[in-house]
Amino acid sequence: MNANAPILPLLIPLLTALLQMVSARLPFQRVVGLLATALLVLVTGWLTLLADDGVVRVYALGDWSAPFGIVLVVDRLAAAMTLLTAILGLLVLLYASAGFDQEGLHFHPLFQFQLLGLLGAFLTGDLFNLFVFFEIMLLASYVLLAHGGGLARTRAGVSYVVLNLVGSALFLIALGLLYGVLGTLNLADVARVVALPGHDRSLARLAFILLIAVFALKAGLLPLSFWLPHTYTAAGAPVAALFAIMTKVGIVAMLRVQAVALAPTMPDLLDHWLTPLALATIVFAALGALAAARLRALAAWLVLLSAGTLLLTPAQASSEVSAAALYYLMQSTLAAAAFFLLSGVIAQQRGERADHFMTGPPLRSAWLAIAFLVLATTAAGLPPFSGFVGKLMLLTTLRDVAAGPAIWAVVLTTGFIVMAALARDGCYLIWKHRAKARPLPVEGIGWQQTTAVLLLVAAGPLLAVLAKPLSDFSQRAAVQLHTPGAYVAAVLHSGTVNPDGREATR
User: Is the peptide bond before 67 cis (omega within 30 degrees of 0)?
Assistant: First the structure.
């Protein structure tokens, strides 16, 4: 059973989507989707427990060994990202099942295909299949973005599609160059071949630069990030909440390629340019958050800010920095998703004012004010919640790098800007009311929405309470990532390899 574990997170959403297409009845699709996604959480949780023994597990599809066949690879990083995706997917799907899913066609099968693309991107050990899973993820996201219709979503969808088609074209060009130079696209085999003499090093370097550029586009690195705030703001609340993890796919892919293939042979490829652009992205996002006119737009800018912060880490090539980044990635993803879902609930309670930052009718649900306060404290990086822990871990590990003073100055200054924006915006949404305005009825808020929002909000305090075990796991995952010998050996043997590089099973 353990040998087949890596394929299970992909089979569940694939078979679920096919089953949901058998019947168009919404209650059937809801029940099947929720049960399957709950099962996905259990399976990825079990996979994470398995991965924590330090063994790299490889599944060769069709029993075709690498580098010729398609392989799925599970280490601590891949397992943790699949678990995070499954948890987020379950809560977002629960929220959407309160009525958002009936605003358009085929929401549930598309949602499962979106999960399939995300999970596959984290598990694949082959760069071409990374492209395939990117396309599955993007094709589903194109339709989910337009779910519910409207001019704003149509405009955002057009620009989103065009930009990602350009990114896909660059991805294919990079893969073609890489295959032409090295003769392989399996990541472990790329790491082996690129270290050997006899190939055009300059062409290989160009191919990797194009590949990193594609990952930067997916992550939202400035100047490739102008699409992100507009697109995420236009999307429906549950769709935008799921999209909160999409930028992390590019960041994790960049970390993986850098640690496995680039650090041993081209350690200077990310030097001198990635850190300044990441800092510029953070400043840009903080100013956007300050200028945001509605809560959903503010959440979109916070997604970009977290992406910029995480993009400080690949250029450092350090297990300590990557460990802090993994913890920060988890808490920032869940906090941003919670903001998107909270914006949807608040919009329902404020009528025509929706989630815009202007005075409106008072909210009848007191828990909304508490939820906003917890999320605002987390997003601003204030104690005692996980935003503070994650930011402190990152700043501590980045203190001694060459750009350490600039990183500290930018991160702390933008933190104050975001805190000011959240304080101002909370006053409009929660405490300032129009004179003589009557509260609106709240019958439209379902228990599914309330449960999903509260569980995501609770992640802020919970991740802070569990900071020690989570940071320890993150450290082990980062050490495993930055010592890729076991990864390369396991993939090229198409079996499982112990942390010391010895083959365990075939």
Answer: yes
**Pairwise pLDDT comparison (256 vs 496), residue with the higher score:** 256
How far is residue 371's CA from residue 388's CA, in Å, rounded to a whole number?
17
| C-alpha torsion angle, residues 208, 214, 220, 224 (rounded to 10) | 100
Task: Identify whether the C-beta of residue 72 lies closer than 8 Å to the C-beta of residue 7.
Answer: yes
What gap in Å lies between CA 483 and CA 173, rounded to an integer? 29
Token pair of 4 as six digits:
């087949």
Q: How confident is the model over 11-37, as a mean pLDDT?
A: 93
pLDDT at position 44 over 60: yes
- Which contiguous run of DSSP H or E holds residue 155? helix 151-182
What integer pLDDT is reported at residue 433 of this predicted model?
63
**Following CA atoms 299, 305, 310, 312 in sequence, which dihedral angle do they give, to the nearest 10 degrees?**
180
- Burial of 186 by CB count in 10 Å (0-12 exposed, 13-18 middle, 19+ buried)? buried
pLDDT at 31 over 80: yes
Measured distance CA(320)–CA(259) in Å, rounded: 13
Dig out the tokens for 67 from the structure. Answer: 């580098």
CA separation for the pair 450, 442 (Å, rounded): 12
Q: Domain segments of the chain: what residues? A: 2-500
What value does the CA radius of gyration of the chain take, rounded to a whole number of Å? 22
Look at residues 261, 401, 415, 242 and name the one whose alpha carbon lies nearest to residue 318: 401
Q: Please identify which residue in the block is written with the tokens 């065009």.
A: 162
Q: CA-CA distances (angstroms) from residue 7 to 82, 90, 208, 430?
A: 12, 19, 28, 46
The whole-angstrom distance between residue 246's C-alpha and the CA centroid of its chain comes to: 4
Is the Cα torsion angle 450, 421, 304, 382 positive or negative in sign?
negative
**Helices (H) then strands (E): counts for the chain:** 21, 4
Cα 342 to Cα 365: distance, rounded to the nearest angstrom: 12
Backbone angles phi, psi at 394, to 5 degrees: -65, -50
C-alpha of 259 from chain center: 19
pLDDT digits (tens, 9 = 90+) for 193-227: 888 887 778 898 899 999 999 999 989 898 888 88
Note the pTM of the prediction, 2 decimals.
0.92
Pairing of strands 56-60, 71-74: antiparallel
Q: Is 505's pLDDT higher than 90?
A: no
pLDDT tens digits along 101-160: 888 788 999 999 999 999 999 999 999 999 999 999 999 999 999 887 778 888 888 888
Q: Above 70 in pLDDT, residue 1?
A: no
